[in-house]
Amino acid sequence: MGEAYASLLSLRGLTRRFGGLTAVDGIDLDLAKGGLVSIIGPNGAGKTTLFNLVTGLDRPDAGTVSFEGRDVTGLSPERLAAQGIARTFQLGRVFGNLSVMDNVLIGAHTRLRAVKPAVPVIGPLLELGLALLRPSAVRAEEERLREEVKAILARFGERLLPRIDQPAYSLSYANRRRVEIARALALKPRLLLLDEPTAGMNPSETAEMQGLVAELKAEGLTILLIEHKLEMVMRLSDRVIVMDEGKKIAEGPGEQVRGDPKVIEAYLGHGLSGTAEQESAA
Amino acid sequence: MSSWLDYTINGLIVGNVYALVAVGLALIFGVSRLINFAQGSIYLVGAYIGWVAVVQLHTPLPLTIILVAVVAALVGLIIERFGLRPLQNSVRIAPLLATIGISFVLDQLVMLTFSPNPRALPSQLPDVRFQIGGGTIGPLDLLIAGVGITSALLLFVFLRYTKLGWAVRAASQDRDAAMQMGVDVNRVNQTVFGIAAALGGVSGLLVGMYYNQIDTAMSLQATLKGVVAEVVGGAGNVPGAVVGSLLLGLVESYGIAVFGTSYRNLFAFLLLVVVLVLRPNGLFASARQAPPEPLTGTFIAPSRPVRIPRWAFAVAVALFAILPLLPVSFYVLQTLINAWLLGMLALSLTLVAGTIGQVSLGHAALLAIGAYTSALLSLTLNLPVGLAIIAGGLMSAALGTILISPSFRLRGHYVSIATLAIGEIVSLVILNWESVTRGPIGISGIPPLSLFGYDLVDPKAVYWFSFVVMVVLALLQVRLLGSHLGRSFRAIRDDDIAARAYGLSLNRYKSLAFIFGGFAAGVSGGIAAHLYSYINHETFNTQQSILALTVVILGGLGNVVGALLGAVALVGLPEVFRIAAEYRILIYGIVLLLLVRFRPQGLLGTI
User: Fold this and answer.
1) What is the ipTM, given to two decimal places?
2) Is the pLDDT reported for residue B376 higher than 60?
3) N or C: which end of chain B has fewer CB within 10 A?
4) Is A115 within 8 Å of B484 when comparing Cβ atoms?
């Protein structure tokens, strides 16, 4: 694979309208391999909609998304996942009735090879047959992935490992967020999108999460982060993008953005009146 | 040309009747995001109340209409208060199942009270026809049009100019915001159910008068037609429901004009499937609406399944396997053979509805496909019965999956509507495709079960045969659930958006679930065909679909052992208690309602 592209992810003029509202308005963004860019902004600024556009859950009305130099605008979430884009969700979407182990194994779904032969047309039928017969290659693959899941869960200390067989619905809110991140890591992503990974966490849990994200960055993972906790954003980000009402109003290193009068106005203008308001995912 | 005008008038009149049902459905959907499968039952109640009023009480027409509206509204209020309000905070599947259960209970109560035989419902209006242009119109047509337009106007005024009407509209736009602003959502729900039921009841009365005949089969048809009209107009959209109804009336009327009466329903259901596939938000909504809200709640009740130790399962299998060697009566064996056939269907449905979350209401169609394939292959090609049954299973798997595939992009309630419609389409095709299926005459003289050239006529042999087939299918399914496919199916059920974000293609995995489940159901149908030796288009009907669903809920969604336990319980217990056949469906309906309310995870728990 050549490294001809300038940045791993690049967005050009990305726009999404809902009726009269322009949720994402002409956003440009470049994210270099191994970089960490944070998107901040008041509730309703369009951050989550931007994530949805990048991960294929929603289609842009205008603009392009390029990943590794290829145009991937409007591809389905399945295809994008197969290309190595993983995300977590703002509201914590774990599979409630699946165990922690199974939740994280789903993250590795795109990496299944032995059980999902790449044969056109009859591929699904072969998959069904292999799942029922389970020859040794399939069993070995499953075993290997299970070991890998345990290694991923070990990164969260004793938070998840003791609960590996518990259904996800029985976990605490913070643990569900951790399961989501573990699931994303199991995909072996080339690009990881984290949507408010510390929402609902107390300061010590937040610090723990911050440590983990820093570790991932140090390992060379490329990360796009939505986060409200500014201290974490300032520490981790190479660059910060500020969104308000769908538009990018500032971009640059954290300290520079922090002092920008437009940013202060955006936060004071909305932040005081609408703090209880849930950021609309739509 | 004159007849075209007649067909147009007829289409608009019938459309008016559908509109009365569909508007109620749209109001309810708007406020509570629920497709009320009991709407047709209220329509049925309305027709029978009307019959009592006209034939026994001899009430004048205006009083008849008022009486029907009031009684139907009361039924609606009771459904809301006791059937649905207790489920407000439960998982999304619960109210869906509850309205299905309520519909069966109401239909059966009407049937038990009035007998299933059709009755005449005279219209009380003079039988004259007026010439207009090239067509004719009668007083009843005018009455129906008048009632339709008057109700629409009243509803418009109510929603627009009254405080309660505002509350209804507010609640349908944003329920939580309306509650925060002090809107009493319970009162709104009551109002909406009352209005919907009154309209539905009057609609039943008018239809009964229009055809001068009422019978208990009207209920399901009305629900289906109302839902079709509502979905065509856009779920929850009240004016859309009216337009959708008129469109449906015209499509049916012109369809009859061109192809004949027996195709009437086929057009309605094809229209539904086309709209669901091309414009799932209805004809009037933008095809690219905002993506659906994140669904943080789960579709099915979370639970920890009861762990059945392997030895216990093995002991149970062994006991049932040696049962025919014990001195048991022919009657017991016969009952258990029925249970094993139902068990296979339940295995199929528990995979489709439970494991991957597609609550199919047309599952009996898979039985029918398997039964017809197996019967025709053994009769016309002299294929050995064992092979014919396997071919029936494969045909069900293939054809069933292809037919159901338009519903793969749908969710929740829509899947149930689409599968119900697809089931009806299958039965209508069987009825009308005479050159292959022998149409309404059915297929007789189907050869008995046989294996390697030996006929299985001894009940013991039939028992063992069906038991072994069922156990093999169950073991295969357990193996499937333990593979990566089991995990993938369940992930799609719990959160299809998150599943897609991790590379799970909904089409691929829903197809695989239906292929696997379709095979089991087709085999069950195939065995049944050779057992009964005669089948027709009504052998496998919606009642069986609902019975299978009750079995699956009873055992626990997705739970293989639960499905078999549920089948034995629901087939066996009524026999043990010698409950008369006509009360059984009533009891199944009540069991379904009680389960949804008090033990949504079933006996053995959801897997």
Assistant:
1) 0.91
2) yes
3) N
4) yes
